[in-house]
Amino acid sequence: AKDEGRGRHRFFSRSIHEASLARQLLQAELRRALDQRQFSLVYQPKVNLWTRQVLGVEALLRWTRPDGRPISPLEFIPLAEASGLIVPLGAWVLETACQQSRAWAQASGEELAVSVNISAVQFTDPGFVDMVERCLRNTGLPPRLLELELTESMLITDIARVQQTLRALQALEVCVSIDDFGTGYSSLSYLQNFPVQTLKIDRSFLKTVPDDPQASAVVEAVIALGRSLNLGVIAEGVETTEQARCLLNLGCAAMQGYLFGRPMAAPELLAWVQEWHR
Ligand code: C2E
Ligand code: CA
Ligand code: CA
Ligand code: CA
């Protein structure tokens, strides 16, 4: 029994070691990937079902390794955050997304607002606001066409500092939305004092709508909150017509999800928009 115990211990420590080795390898690969242009962006449309408007697109990062294997952002973003690579990578994402919005406008006259996900590490980087400003200047994108998606949890860590950063972004006239709303520690009082424009209802609540009355209640509450604070509300992860109908009944017409369009490469996205208007 004693031997077995020791064996097990050895087994565990080796597998922990292997896991951390795998992580280190992936991290090294990630660093190379930025130089070797293995990253790309896809874009998912956001629509308003009442007005039939296309509200804009969300830029989502993709990593395809040289062997053709795609790695999910859920896997590599945390690694990029841990290594600090998210700062240059995030700057690349922002610049590329802004350039793309400009390129669409120039090619088709279609002004598509673009939303970019910002990680906490990026947001707290002292150079963040300057980076956003430089990006707008370099690409010539009108700031109202840029939206930054922040998550709730990153807003409540150092409130004074967060408020300062948000005010600086407000001065640049870019929009800010709170992503995955409802999943964090919704301290509602902070919302009043933060210059944000939109609440994005997390996909997890949509999953069980309309069957689960509790999930529906959360969705309803966020919509009511948005209305009383004069904030826009959008639902993400809309997959079925039942969910869309339910959201419309609750008073939320802004939606994003596979029901309307999957994340697409830039040329497909433009074709999608033109098809939507037809
Ligand atoms: P997120 O910001 O909440 O993005 C929404 C995710 O839901 C995306 O996954 C999108 O492809 C997926 N999605 C959209 N509609 C539907 C739907 O109807 N059904 C289902 N099941 N899923 C839907 P994706 O692209 O794998 O991204 C995962 C997460 O990775 C994002 O969650 C975001 O947190 C992060 N991420 C992606 N791109 C970036 C980036 O450029 N920077 C940072 N910091 N994070 C990013
Ligand atoms: Ca997002
Ligand atoms: Ca989200
Ligand atoms: Ca999410």
Instruction: Evaluate the radius of gyration.
Output: 21 Å
- Termini separation: 73 Å
Shape label: globular
Number of E-type strands: 9
What's the SSE pattern? Answer: HEEEHHEHHEHHEHEHHEHEH
Mean pLDDT: 91
Helix content: 40-55%
- Bound chemical compounds: ligand C2E, calcium ion
* Number of helical regions: 12
Share of β-strand residues: 15-25%
Task: List the uncertain runs.
Answer: none
- How are the strands of the biggest sheet laid out side by side? 1-2-4-5-6-7-8-9
Largest sheet: 8 strands, mixed, barrel
Structural class: alpha/beta
Write the layout of secondary structure elements.
Layout lengths: L1 H34 L3 E10 L5 E11 L5 E2 L1 H11 L2 H23 L5 E4 L2 H4 L4 H12 L6 E6 H4 L3 H14 L2 E7 L6 H6 L4 E4 L1 H5 L5 H16 L3 E4 L5 H10 L3 E2 L10 H12 L1
The site of ligand C2E has 22 residues, from strand 2, helix 2, helix 3 and strand 6.
Organism: Deinococcus arboris
Protein name: EAL domain-containing protein
How would you characterize this protein structure?
- The protein is an alpha/beta fold and 278 residues long.
- The protein has twelve helices and nine strands.
- The protein has an eight-stranded mixed barrel, surrounded by four helices.
- It is globular, with a radius of gyration of 21 Å.
- It binds ligand C2E and calcium ion (CA) (3 copies).
- This is EAL domain-containing protein.
Q: What is shown here, in short?
A:
The chain is α/β, with parallel strands linked by helices and 278 residues long. It is built from 12 helices and 9 strands. An 8-stranded mixed β-barrel has the order 1-2-4-5-6-7-8-9, surrounded by 4 helices.
